[in-house]
Amino acid sequence: MAYGSDEGFAAWLAGQGLELPDGANAASLRTIGSVYVDAAYEPKLSACSRRAGGFMQDLAWPRAGLRLNGQPVPSDLIPPAWISASYRAAYLEALTPGWATGSADPNRITRREQVDTISREFFAPGDTGGGAAAPGIASDAIINGMVLPWLCSGVRTNPRFLVI
Q1: Cα 55 to the center of its chain, rounded Å
Q2: CA–CA separation, 24 vs 145, rounded Å?
Q3: Which structural domain range is residue 112 located in?
Q4: What's the predicted TM-score (pTM) here?
């Protein structure tokens, strides 16, 4: 299962002025891209919605119970932005095999380096609150921008507390 279609992927690539490397398998890449966006972003969907087809549904979309800008999202919708995000992830995987399927081992990340008197410290996206992707998963700013409007906000939903 994958979002979109091979024809849609080809049209998206052409629209972006991009091409797959020779020998790339579009169907396999679409599957990898779809699994990537679901793995990276579904945790932030689960706080305010659920898979419309229940736990046996292959992909994160369509969703039930999701609201966007106060409006209910149809439970049969797969957002075009989510499909485009999966296409971008597929393209990035084609360019750099392992991009979408790799993961970071937090035990192997250097956080601080010191050479003589020069010291540098590094932070993971989860440490600084940046990035919409789940911790330990590769992140792309363009994909983040595509899916961000669809993710659950961290806004308090207590009906007795209203900020104006």
Answers
A1: 19
A2: 26
A3: 6-150
A4: 0.79
